[in-house]
């Protein structure tokens, strides 16, 4: 029996979806705003906006290899439906607008100051990027086509990722596979995955491996080791498969149609591994692929103005903890970002020092020298903006090092002084890292970047050994290396 929706024309289905996009995001935003209005003094409120994720899955048709009619394999390339492609572009634009309006409603709820800065710190983050895909991959068809016994290996897919679980005796309930057989199956699976190749010229310029990354669960040297089948590493966690693999972009495990639609010029078989998919956008590929990058925006009373270096999603939680004044537990990955931006950080450290000035005349002199040095660092014309230095930026590093040197001369320094010295080194590091990230974006040659990165590592080693002035000097060299054009 055909689905009820099959009798509706595409444009009506799309109109229904668009209404859902607007209504659901409005609903999600209302829930968040109601929570904020009921608990106006809450320390943190979190809101999830479903768009543009949903719309990009449905409508990210931007690659000529994507069939604009999922039931017609010929609707690729010159045969794509240009009117549909234009409509789809419009839906994606709508999704971004709707998400943008949701953020604006949150900003309106917390209010803004005279400069338009939100009165509360507002973070806008996503957890992944997106890529278009043209081909659906059937993991079970892969197992069958390669002669694997599916009572011994089970595939669990999620987007472009697949976990293969071997039915290992002693680990799985009713497991049937011996340890010797596990070793053989794991290797066979790895080899078979490596050999899955797309050779269809409609989809690839030349034979292309369909799998981008393949990882196997580590096995102990001794087959009788009680940890056999349970070892983990960076890529295979406790609950991962015995083989974990990720597809190359353009391919996705979701979207296999029933009945299956054979791709243009592929051999006609009953259960193909590759087929025409029935939707268009996916995520979950190797996070190092640039299109998989997520977004990070922040504005508010504790946030500076400028551009941060490239950050990792794991840095978000420690950043928020730091702003809330909560110490991150040791189990928290990532590092708090300098969201106040280096120039503001130095200003804050200068203000902290000003408040500390006291003690015997010699100590007072050291404090004052450190404050003067930081004033030189902050007020110099070396700043392009709150996080970027001009060509004469080395004078900022020199002044910061000077401040640290003065503070380290103080006898029996308080823990605040020690913390300020460490923060000075950390800010110098941030300036260097920002310059390195800029150099990467500017395609500066890899050796120059590697040399600058090496200086950062030397600086980190100096920090670890308590040599903060030496560290600031290394960070200065890193900055100089990365800034040279
Ligand atoms: Zn999604």
Characterization of this structure:
The mean pLDDT is 94. This protein folds into three domains: 10-131 and 289-301, no CATH class; 135-279, 2-Layer Sandwich (Gyrase A, domain 2), CATH 3.30.1360; 341-483. It is of the alpha+beta class and 485 residues long. Helix 1 runs parallel beside helix 3 and helix 7 (342-356) packs antiparallel against helix 8 (361-379). It has helices at residues 10-38, 53-59, 82-110, 139-145, 179-194, 316-324, 342-356, 361-379, 394-408, 415-441, 446-464, 468-483, and strands at 122-125, 131-132, 135-137, 153-158, 161-166, 197-198, 208-209, 211-216, 243-247, 251-252, 274-276, 281-282, 296-299. The longest helix is centred in the N-terminal third of the chain and has 29 residues, at 10-38. It has twelve helices and 13 strands. The strands form five sheets. A four-stranded antiparallel beta sheet has the order 4-5-9-8, with helices on one face. The protein is globular, with a radius of gyration of 28 Å. Residues 53, 57, 283 line the site of zinc ion. Zinc ion binds next to helix 2.
Itemize the secondary structure elements and their pairings.
Layout: H1 10-38, H2 53-59, H3 82-110, E1 122-125, E2 131-132, E3 135-137, H4 139-145, E4 153-158, E5 161-166, H5 179-194, E6 197-198, E7 208-209, E8 211-216, E9 243-247, E10 251-252, E11 274-276, E12 281-282, E13 296-299, H6 316-324, H7 342-356, H8 361-379, H9 394-408, H10 415-441, H11 446-464, H12 468-483
Parallel strand pairs: 3-10
Antiparallel strand pairs: 1-13, 2-12, 3-11, 4-5, 5-9, 6-7, 8-9
Bound molecules: zinc ion (ZN).
Zinc ion binds at residues 53, 57, 283.
